[in-house]
Amino acid sequence: MTSKVRAPSRYQRNAFAPSLIAAGTLFVAPLLLGGDWFLVVLFLVSILALIVAWFAIQARQWWWMPVFAAIAVLWNPVFPFPFTGPVWTAAQPVTAVVFLVAGAMVKVKRT
């Protein structure tokens, strides 16, 4: 039996894990709207948005910076916006998809 030796990846996706955590949180977020647990969602999403933005800057993909800066501001727990209704509920999974796309696209070449 022959075993194939897999070549190591040439790229490293540092933003992938924080993006997965944020996306999972945001997919559950509509169930938590209006409850005490939504504050945890706000903290997680805003912090992970800043982390993903930092990895995007390190990867020299600066165009992600305004996207995640806006997410960090809109989901900030310190001065929360009083968003309610179907638009805010729909914004949760849409933002989860943005996190997933960025997590897959932000990559740096391994040295």
Automatic annotation (TrEMBL):
InterPro entries, per database record: DUF6804
Transmembrane segment boundaries: 15-33, 39-57, 62-81, 87-106
Name of the molecule in the record: DUF6804 family protein
Annotated keywords: Membrane, Transmembrane, Transmembrane helix
Keyword flag GTP-binding: no
Pfam families (alphabetical): DUF6804
Highest taxon in the source lineage: Bacteria
